[in-house]
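Recap for those who missed Tuesday's class. We walked through two folding examples back to back. For each one, the amino acid string is listed first and its predicted C-alpha cells come directly after. Nothing is annotated here on purpose, so try labeling regions yourself before you check the end of the notes.
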Amino acid sequence: MVSCDLGDRLGLATEFSEGVDKSASAKAAVSEPDFEIVEHGENPAAWVGAGFDVATDVGENVPITPGEYGVNEAVLGWIQLVEAFEGNPRLGADRVDADGLNAVVVEQLLGHVQQSRLGEIGVHFNLPLAERTIVLYSTSHGRRTIVLHVDGGVQMFAPIFTHHTVSIDGLDVFYREAGDRSNPTLVLLHGFPTSSHMFRGLMADLADDFHLIAPDHIGFGSSAMPSVDDFDYSFDRLAEITWTLLEELSLERYALYIHDYGAPIGLRIATRKPERVTALITQSGNAYTEGFTPFWEVLFAHAADRKTHESAVRELLEPAATHWQYTHGVPDDRVGRLAPETWLLDQAGLDRPGNKEIQLQLFWDYQFNLEAYPAFQEYFRQWQPPTLVAWGRNDEIFGPAGAQAFRRDLPDAEIHLLDAGHFALETHRHEIAALARDFLQRTL
C-alpha cells in the first residue's frame, strides 16, 4: 500500500466505471488494492492523455474549505458513493460545476465513511469499489491536482460495534466493543464530562487490527448512576469497578488509552497488575503536577473548602462550560469538525437529577489523585511501559507541560503535541488513529 500525505485542502470528484461486481461473493472478498498516484496539474486533457477515463465536463476542481461538509485533511483515498451501485456509475464526475463539488454529493459520500487512516491511503466503505476509480484533489499548494487510480474491486472493512451491560457489584456497567477478540486488546477510558461515546470514531478506525473495549464509568453515559448517598464516588472505587469489569471479560493483557479522568483510573489498574498492561496511550491523561493549569485553581480551592467554593465549581457543570471544553484551543480551520451532539449529549448526562452532586463529589476527590502520582511515576520508571502521548498543545485543562513530563520517567515515550484542545479526538481523530495504529503495531 502506498503511503502518502495529500495536503491540507481537498476538493473531490469521482467517476465509477461500468461493470461493477455487486454479487454477495464479491462483497465478501477482502483484498488490498494497488494504487497508482500521478500528478498532472489542472488540465483534464492531461488526465485522459495519461490513460484515465475522466469525464471532460469535470471543469475546474474548486477546493472545498476544510471543515465544510466534514471534508478534512484526512480524507485521503478509497472513495465511494452508494449511487454508483444503483445504476449511476458517473455520479460525481457529472455533478461538478463552477461552484465546486455538489454539496449533496459530498454529504452522501461522507455519510458512508467507515474508517480512515493517515499515513496509508484509506477512507473505508462497506461496499466494493468500482473497477476504476479516480479521485481528484486540489490542495493549497497552487491548486495541484493528484489523480488516484485504483485497479480492481475490493471489499472494505466495516467494523461491527456491539453494546453490552454487565452487573458489577450490583451496578450496571455499560461498555462498547469492536474488533476480533483474538487481536491485541486496547481498553479506552474516558474523562469528564463525557462517556465511551468519545471513542466512537477511533474504535472504527482501529477495529480491523485490534480488539477494543470502552466502558462508561459509574455516573456517566449508560452505566448506572446511584446517588452520592448510595455509592462511594471516588477514583479508587471507579478504578475498582473497571478492574472488575476487565476480570469479568477475562482480559489478561491489554493496552490502556487514558483521557482526563481515565488517567487516574487506568493508572491505578496499571500499578495494581503492571504485567497485564502492554502499552499506554495518553490523550490529556495527566500524571504529573506540571500538567495542571489555572483551570484547576477553583477546583483545588473547592477541595480545601467545599462550602465556600461550591457555587463557583457548579458553573463548570453548566452548558457554557461543557461547550467550552470542546471548543477551546481548536484552530479556526478545525472548528467545523466539532459535532454539536458531543457537548449536548454530555450536558444531558450532567443535567440528570442527582448527577451534578456526583460530579461535585468527584471534583472534591480528585485531590487524592495527586497523592497517587508518586506511585504512578514509580510504575513508569520500574516497568517502562511503551507509551504514546498524543496531546492537544492548546489544552487549557491539562497543559502541554504535562505531556512533556512523561519523558522524565519514560525516556522512550513518543510525544506528539497536536494543534488541538482538550478533546483532540474530535478534531484530530485521523492523526491520532494513525499514531495509535503505528505505535501499537510496533509495540504489541
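Example two. Treat it independently of the first, because the proteins are unrelated.
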Amino acid sequence: MSPVRLLLLLPLLVIGIAAYSLIEADERLPTPAAMTNVAISRQTMGPLPLAIAADAAAESASSVTLESEPLRVLADEGARLFAARRFVEAAEKLLPAAEAGYPQAQYQVGWMHYLGFGLQRDLEAAVSWFARAAEQGNVDGMNALGTALREGKGTGQDHGQALHWYRAAAEQGHPDGEVNLGFMLEMGYGTEQDLPAAALNYRLAAEKNHATAQFYLGSLHEEGNGVAADLDTARGWYRRAAAQGNEYARLALQRLEGLAPAPAANPAASWPGER
C-alpha cells in the first residue's frame, strides 16, 4: 500500500449511543474538498468506522436468563448517562452488567475502554469486550470486533477474521456490517475481490437508508464496477445520500451535474491491484 493511500485511509471514528455521537479529533478524514474524484473519495472514506447502534434497544439475544431485565435496565441507564457525558456514572452502571454477561453492555464497555471515557483507555481490553459481545451474537460487537481486527487496534491485524465478523453482522441484517463487508469485498481485503458481491451488500444497506452505502453504491454505478454503468442511477443514490448530509455524495452530484470542475489528473487517484 502506498504511503499516500495509507494516509488517506486514516479512519473517522464516530461513536453513537442513543443517537449521541462523539468524534475523536485526531482521527478525522481529510475534507471532501481535497478529494479529486469519486474513486479517491470512496477509498479515502474506507470501510465504516466503529459505531455503536443509535437504538440501544436493538440487541441480540443474550445468554443471561433470570437477570436479563435488571441488566437491561442497568445497560439502558448507562447508555443514557454516557449520552449525557456523565462517563464515570455510566461506567458504574455498564460495567456490572457487562461482567454479568449482558452483551450490549459488554459492547458499550468496550467503547468506553477504546475512548478512555469513564474507564482507562485500553485498546486490548476494548477488543476483549467486543469479542465477548460478538461471541454472544451481538451484532454491534461483531461489527466493532471486525473493525478492530481490520485496523489492528488492540489486537493483531487480521483481514480474514475481520471479514468473518463483518459477514456475521451482515448476515443478521446489520447495515454497518453490510457496508464494511461490501468494502472488504470491493477492495479484496481478506478475500478475492468480488465487485458484484460488494455492490449487493452496499445495496442491502442503501435500501435501509444508510447514507454511506448509498454513496458507495452510486459511485459503483458511476464507474460501472460490479454493476451496469448508469449515471442516472448513480445520481439517484447520490441524491439520497446527500439529502442525509453526506458531503462526498453532494460533491459527486455537483460534479455529475456540471456544477463543479472536472478533477485534474492525479496519479494517486488509483492504485493498481486495489481497484
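Answers for example two:
Strands lie at 14-17, 20-23.
Residues 68-83 form the longest helix (16 residues).
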